[in-house]
């Protein structure tokens, strides 16, 4: 997070930002000095949402900033300012239109993000001063969101299965957690044949990474993240356009890692198990073929209808293993289907669950956190869409109907009915720059999930 959000000090050291609307602008103008009123008129400032203007004092120094806002969108209200305002310390003035400071500050911090691995940003962001208590609440959420974005934005050459495992080991060291990893043929010996089958064609061996933390007596929380570090589609090769951003196909793992970091930082009283099946879906002599039948940890035999439906294969082994722990809650997060994007677009992760009350609560929390999700049904009649003539079922089928639902139903086969389960099918990406959401990797549903876990266990 760097110094994007900072502790409030003396108001004399901070430049005031006043939120205004077209309706309040006249009243604001009336109390300004004549020179500043003239400056507003000369610049044609109308308080349109997202537009801002700096007001100089008598010596020509920046004294105050007016920013046009939409009161219904506090997250976006200040999100463009950290990269637009001169570098300095700012505060939100209570004299302006009331905004929910928590969401406005979160938008400021997330709007300040820039990916720094290869190119230094042209400038550092301006800083927003906050009360210490609010700063303490927001800093971990901002750091977790930055972590997701950094992981998703990192090219596969720098972040394959082994490097993803190293990131989890570093996280474990920070929180005195334990890590166990099964690599390559060890997956077969340990009972994870589907993970092995998907990743075996790559020169980078597949693996399952398990982080464990917490007390044995506490309720179990299992978080599973899809870690396909690059997805060519396998022998069912993607098009060039479809493959272009497939470094992001480990976005579910990025979310799971960040969520685990939040849980451990908050020291929630849970017995945490983070599971990341990490693979490259590559083409090679050992690549999966359409029509192959593979084993799974749960004992099902699965016919491969499409090698590009690989995420559900690796998640199935991890879910079955996580369910063996009989957790109080099992969550999986995955960039799983294009069908979810067709149905809901890029902004809304698709949520699936058998627990109505739990799902409805998560959706409500997401609205309050400016981190929305949308629930889709686990429509059981659609199980017929992955029927197989030679195996227990297939990983897909000829129909293009209800792709996100079919994928969720496939995963459900590996989660016993008595285990509470949430499945998020997320995009983990912004196609364009928007206030608080720069183009590239994105954390979607992360804040909502953590707030749900705080409510459930905190």
Characteristic terms for this protein:
458 residues; 2 domains; elongated; Aminopeptidase; six-stranded mixed sheet; Leucine Aminopeptidase, subunit E, domain 1; alpha/beta; 15 helices
How does this structure look, described?
With 458 residues, the chain is an alpha/beta fold. It folds into two domains: 126 residues, Leucine Aminopeptidase, subunit E, domain 1 (3-Layer(aba) Sandwich); 316 residues, Aminopeptidase (3-Layer(aba) Sandwich). The chain is 34% helix and 20% strand. The chain is built from 15 helices and 20 strands. The longest helix is centred in the N-terminal third of the chain and has 22 residues. The mean pLDDT is 97. GO terms for molecular function: manganese ion binding; metalloaminopeptidase activity. It comes from Aerosticca soli. Pfam families: Peptidase_M17, Peptidase_M17_N_1.
Quick description:
The chain is an alpha/beta fold and 458 residues long. It is built from 15 helices and 20 strands.
SSE blueprint:
Elements: E1 5-7, E2 15-20, H1 25-30, H2 34-43, E3 52-56, E4 62-68, H3 74-77, E5 89-92, H4 101-111, E6 127-130, H5 132-153, H6 161-175, E7 178-183, H7 186-190, H8 193-199, E8 207-213, E9 220-225, E10 227-231, H9 240-243, H10 251-266, E11 271-281, E12 293-295, E13 301-303, H11 311-323, E14 329-334, H12 338-344, E15 350-353, H13 356-368, E16 374-375, E17 393-394, H14 403-412, E18 421-425, E19 429-430, E20 440-441, H15 446-457
Parallel strand pairs: 1-6, 2-4, 2-5, 5-6, 9-11, 9-14, 10-11, 13-17, 14-18, 15-16
Antiparallel strand pairs: 3-4, 7-8, 8-11, 12-13, 15-18, 19-20
Helix pairs in contact: 4-5, 5-10, 8-11, 10-15, 11-14, 13-15
